[in-house]
Specification:
Length: 317
């Protein structure tokens, strides 16, 4: 039985480690560290109304966790999110229901109109979401590549005229060009909730300074000195690497720059000791799925985006 739903104790490393344990059991294809968990809470924008909830059983063991808040940078107000995870060894005992109830109560207090959640695309998980009033929309794949056995392509001996490859760390003095490229690439990402990506200071705090971001393994492609594309690398210090975002700006597409960036980053990741590479793609993003398939990535799981209307939308006047 679940006895307690509470907020993470952000200054307690053991509490953060408990969240990591649950996440790795529930979603082994996602990067998670105690430092990253604590960072989520400490760096959250005030308007996000972010909470990281945990579920404890009668023995005081953390068996589930949930992230909940408001999509504060959406031009459409009232968009909420909740993502709940339960340790597979403790499912069916009420942790998921208790976490979801607490999360929806929080969103209701913040006057959220809708709640969006990612749910593993497996019958028990889909049934759970549907029982609680959520309805399915789009989906996305998690992909995995074994870097210990993968045959990675090699970089060309000579890059095309005007093309350069640089590590993300080369932009430490002025990362704004990467922010602008990230903002441009995000506009083309499939999504249910529109986002206005224009807060540079927030990007610095939550993206550039994120403990998962490995600037040395992040690859930026320049064309005639201008940022044309990039692949952002996340690592956990334990051999796991994840492509957090790969994008080519519109004027530079069709030249193979995304593949070039990923090739460079993956080669350097393996040389640095990474043994597993993960990434994620919307199931409708055929170009990136094709790029990743050529590297040897294989689908290891699929998530479906579910949504629930929490309260009636205001009638237009």
């Amino acid at each position: 039985m679940i006895t307690t739903i509470r907020d993470l104790h952000p200054n307690d490393p053991a509490d953060a480690e408990s969240v990591v344990r649950v996440r790795r059991a529930a979603l082994p294809f996602m990067i998670s560290t105690a430092r990253g968990v604590a960072f989520e809470v400490a760096s959250a924008h005030p308007d996000r109304r972010f909470r990281l909830l945990v579920a404890e059983n009668a023995d005081g063991l953390v068996v589930g966790t949930a992230q909940v808040g408001i999509v504060h940078d959406s031009p459409e107000p009232g968009q909420g999110f909740v993502n709940a995870y339960v340790d597979p060894a403790h499912r069916g005992l009420g942790a998921g229901t208790a976490l979801l109830g607490a999360a929806e109560e929080h969103l209701g207090a913040e006057r959220a109109k809708d709640a969006y959640a990612w749910v593993l695309d497996e019958p028990p998980h889909r049934a759970f979401a549907e029982r609680h009033g959520y309805r399915a929309s789009r989906s996305a794949h998690f992909l995995r590549l074994d870097l210990t056995t993968a045959t990675l392509p090699q970089l060309p001996g000579t890059l095309p005229d005007g093309v350069e490859l640089r590590a993300g760390s080369a932009f430490a003095a002025d990362p704004r060009p990467l922010f602008e490229a990230d903002a441009a690439g995000t506009l083309d990402e499939p999504g249910d909730v529109p986002v206005e990506f224009d807060d540079y200071e927030n990007w610095l705090r939550n993206t550039w300074e994120h403990p998962y971001l490995n600037r040395e393994l992040t690859t930026v492609v320049l064309v005639d000195g201008e940022v044309a594309g990039f692949t952002a690398a996340h690592t956990d210090g334990a051999g796991r690497y994840s492509s957090a975002m790969t994008a080519t700006l519109r004027p530079f597409r069709g030249r193979g720059l995304a593949r070039l960036a990923k090739t460079d980053s993956l080669l350097r990741a393996r040389a640095a000791g990474s043994t597993e590479a993960f990434t994620g793609n919307d199931t409708g993003n055929a170009p990136m799925l094709a790029v990743n398939a050529r590297f040897g990535y294989e689908v290891c799981a699929t998530e479906t985006r579910f949504t629930k209307q929490l309260r009636e939308r205001e009638t237009a006047r």
